[in-house]
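can u do me a favor
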């Protein structure tokens, strides 16, 4: 701007910007006048102590423990290089593995998070968000402390348990003595089974009976009205009273034993032993209430077993074709032995009671041997309950569009097992344990209320799991626990509660992987544990308070097409669900942003989320023990896709979804990161009575840009951008004149007294558009880029960078700043500037230059 027509005489410039102001007539100006003018123009009372500083200095404290003997190049950026063409460098250095990088640098005070790139000698680069705390940028990448290794030892080395693999002898044992199913033997109700006391005694047995027997109500020495007369059976009142007292602890004062259901319980044995002990073993009968039958006392004995007559079938075999249900498979194992079915032919299951369900209960075992087939057609559900077991041998198969449900847990030796192939509709692993060593396929994988464990040592291929293809679908697999030692593939969306992966294993989700934030009965928080060399590849990730635990040494890889949700917005510490130890994360799409209602860019949230990993300078919290923990390994990093420094050999002939366990990971070297030197913009007013459009001189300062990949910190690039003044102005650095001592209009190759690059050329003949001009100088000793002594020689005053309690006639703005157009006050281009002027301590406004802007007001 013009100097408002005030002419000052004898302005003598002294070295380093000191000056004496002359006057003409009564026109004498001082800094108080300038401050009053500033407050009037800006319309705000400038805060006492306002120093207009927007930059700070800090020291790096970066320690790397990744590869022994490696030397790393370290760059600190003001922006995220993974989302930009260029990374804006604040400082660069080198550090050997196991050592610390400590050097001073400058950064924008408003930048709460900075970005660190760590490149090894092969060109592989790790990226981490970091923050400055008390003047230090602290980052530890690599090995955890001893406390961390102890605390997370079960998660840093995931293990997928094995079981004793059923062999051929086991399978054939169910064939011995088995019978083909018939209409008669598949509905047997056990009426002709009996219990034999002793070995080899045969006198005592259970037989069918009615509702009668001895009983006592505990209130008088009389018999319960439901039973026979006591005297007719030769039992005295004294005997009955003694019996009542003896059995009281078992029946709360009312003794009775109830049929076959209780033939082996303690109370029943106690009663029988008592009768024997009184010498009354000659009694004809001791009756038990219940429709199932009564026990006939024979030769005294202490041991016994169940035997069956010729109509009872304990073991079935299907060697041909059978197309019906078997109702007796649902019976509980109350008779001492469970039913079994051996299949070497084909069983097409039908519902035995037209409910649509073939129930398998009470320890029953279904064995599909080599060459056998269990077909579960559409509309049929086969449900395994109460320790029932499905065993599919190598060469056996389960087919059909029906449903397979494993529920109510599995004891050791009774776990579900597939060594062949399963290809069905829905599979519901509801509070069960299922081990896959073959090929497993289903259209929908579900999991129930708790401890639903799926152990995979083979190949799993599912269409979807627990989540509909679009938002609003049913979430019915919140607690599936997946332990993967081989290959897992889900075509669409998937939901899980726990995922553990061993070295070299592969887990791919084509759609969204949503991790649950619930609990499944044992108070363990949701987590994903990845061993070194594990590779997880997901379409998008929805992270619900889920902790990710990587290896203590070496790296695991998470590749995500995008991020739909993370449980953190960056406004408060993370107390659950963060990344722990060495996981290299890549994200294809950094712009997915606010999906499903989260009001922030989720890529940014995820990127900054890694800052709060266990053992970083963020929140230190133990997600498993729920207590504060000592510092551990903050090794989680961001990488370019496919560029994590992890080499895992592929299984020979690996085919996704078909063959092999390990796809291999042979990293590619990422393209060399393009960089730009970070810029500080010096903006000056040239008059005491300023209009604060801050464009009279704009000088941009950075370290020297050699090319797209190299910055020379021994040289300084000075770029003169504009002049919105008609005065003749000269730029200085300390006592040294810049641009060869030429006046700024001349430097920009513009006309004298023209406004250059402060408005469109079409605005009138007084405005010009000219290329900015850059000169490179050697870096002066002690030079500090954000607070150097740049100043403007104006006919009216020597304009230096504003000091504390002065008006903003010269400010230093971090970044490649856009200045206001001619005659546009800065407050009308950057509305938050006046908030910063009156309250510089408010962190909401210290970044005023990158907050709200009025585009039409900017050049």
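np, heres the sequence
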């Amino acid at each position: 701007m013009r100097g408002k027509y005030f002419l000052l005489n004898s302005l003598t410039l002294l070295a380093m910007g000191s000056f004496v102001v002359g006057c003409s007539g009564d026109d004498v100006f001082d800094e108080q006048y300038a401050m009053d003018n500033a407050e009037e123009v800006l319309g705000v009372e400038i805060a006492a102590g306002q120093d207009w500083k927007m930059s700070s200095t800090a020291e790096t404290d970066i320690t790397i423990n990744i590869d022994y003997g490696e030397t790393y190049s370290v760059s600190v950026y003001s922006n995220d290089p993974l989302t930009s063409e260029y990374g804006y460098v604040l400082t660069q250095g080198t550090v050997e593995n196991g050592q610390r990088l400590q050097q001073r640098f400058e950064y924008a005070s408003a930048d709460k998070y900075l970005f660190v790139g760590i490149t090894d000698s092969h060109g592989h680069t790790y990226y981490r968000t970091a923050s400055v705390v008390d003047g230090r940028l602290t980052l530890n990448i690599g090995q955890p402390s001893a406390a961390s290794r102890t605390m997370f030892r079960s998660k840093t080395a995931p293990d997928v348990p094995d079981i004793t693999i059923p062999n051929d002898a086991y399978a054939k044992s169910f064939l011995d003595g088995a019978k083909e199913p018939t209409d008669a033997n598949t509905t047997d109700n056990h009426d002709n089974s009996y219990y034999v006391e002793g070995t080899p005694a045969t006198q005592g047995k259970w037989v069918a009976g009615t509702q009668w027997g001895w009983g006592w109500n505990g209130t008088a020495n009389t018999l319960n009205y439901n039973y026979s007369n006591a005297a007719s059976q030769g039992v005295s009142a004294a005997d009955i009273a003694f019996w009542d007292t003896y059995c009281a602890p078992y029946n709360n004062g009312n003794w009775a034993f109830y049929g076959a259901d209780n033939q082996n319980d303690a109370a029943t044995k106690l009663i029988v032993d008592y009768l024997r002990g009184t010498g009354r073993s000659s009694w004809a009968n001791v009756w038990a209430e219940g429709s199932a039958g009564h026990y006939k006392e024979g030769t005294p004995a202490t041991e016994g077993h169940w035997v069956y007559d010729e109509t009872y079938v304990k073991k079935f075999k299907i060697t041909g074709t059978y197309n019906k249900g078997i109702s007796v498979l649902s019976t509980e194992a109350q008779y001492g032995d469970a039913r079994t079915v051996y299949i070497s032919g084909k069983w097409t299951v039908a519902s035995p009671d037209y409910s649509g369900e073939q129930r398998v209960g009470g320890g029953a075992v279904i064995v599909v041997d080599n060459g056998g087939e269990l077909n579960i057609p559409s509309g049929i559900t086969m449900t395994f309950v109460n320790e029932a077991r499905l065993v599919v041998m190598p060469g056996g198969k389960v087919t059909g569009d029906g449903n397979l449900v494993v529920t109510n847990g599995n004891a050791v030796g009774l776990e579900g097992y597939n060594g062949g192939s399963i290809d069905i509709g829905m599979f519901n692993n509801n509070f069960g344990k299922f081990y896959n060593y073959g090929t497993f396929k289903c259209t929908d994988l579900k999991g129930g209320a708790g401890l639903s464990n799926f152990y995979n040592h083979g190949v799993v291929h599912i269409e979807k799991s627990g989540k509909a293809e679009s938002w609003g679908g049913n979430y019915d697999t919140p607690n599936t626990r997946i332990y993967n030692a081989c290959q897992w593939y889900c075509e669409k969306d998937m939901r899980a509660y726990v995922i553990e992966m061993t070295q070299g294993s592969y887990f791919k989700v084509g759609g969204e992987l949503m991790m649950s934030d619930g609990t499944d009965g044992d108070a363990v928080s949701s987590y994903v544990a990845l061993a070194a060399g594990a590779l997880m590849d997901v379409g998008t990730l929805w992270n619900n308070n889920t902790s990710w635990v990587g290896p203590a040494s070496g790296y695991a890889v998470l590749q995500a097409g995008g991020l739909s949700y993370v449980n953190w917005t960056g406004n408060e510490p993370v107390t659950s669900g963060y990344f722990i130890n060495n996981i290299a994360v890549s994200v294809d799409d950094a712009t997915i942003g606010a999906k499903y209602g989260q009001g922030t860019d989720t890529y940014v949230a995820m990127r900054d989320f890694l800052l709060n990993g266990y053992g970083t300078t963020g929140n230190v919290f133990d997600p498993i023990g729920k207590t504060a923990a000592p510092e551990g390994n903050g090794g989680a990093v961001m990488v370019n896709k496919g560029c994590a420094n992890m080499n895992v050999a592929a299984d020979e002939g690996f085919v996704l979804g078909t063959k092999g366990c390990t796809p291999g990971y042979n990293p590619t070297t990422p393209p060399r990161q393009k960089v730009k030197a970070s810029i500080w913009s010096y903006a000056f007013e040239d008059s005491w009575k300023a209009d604060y459009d801050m464009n009279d001189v704009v000088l941009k300062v950075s370290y020297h840009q050699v090319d797209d990949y190299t910055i020379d910190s021994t040289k300084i690039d000075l770029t003169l951008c504009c002049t919105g003044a008609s005065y003749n102005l000269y730029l200085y650095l300390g006592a040294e004149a810049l641009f060869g001592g030429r006046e700024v209009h001349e430097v920009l190759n513009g006309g004298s007294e023209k406004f250059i690059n402060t408005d469109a050329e079409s605005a009138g003949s007084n405005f010009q558009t000219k290329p900015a001009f850059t000169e490179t100088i050697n870096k002066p000793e002690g030079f500090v880029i954000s607070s150097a002594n740049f100043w403007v020689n104006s006919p009216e005053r020597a304009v230096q960078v504003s000091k504390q309690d002065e008006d903003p006639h010269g400010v230093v703005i971090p970044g490649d700043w856009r200045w206001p157009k001619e005659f546009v006050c800065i407050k009308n281009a950057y509305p938050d500037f006046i908030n910063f002027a009156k309250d510089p301590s408010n962190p909401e406004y210290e970044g005023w230059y990158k907050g709200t802007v009025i585009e039409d007001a900017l050049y």
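The first strand starts at residue 12 and ends at 13. hope that helps!!
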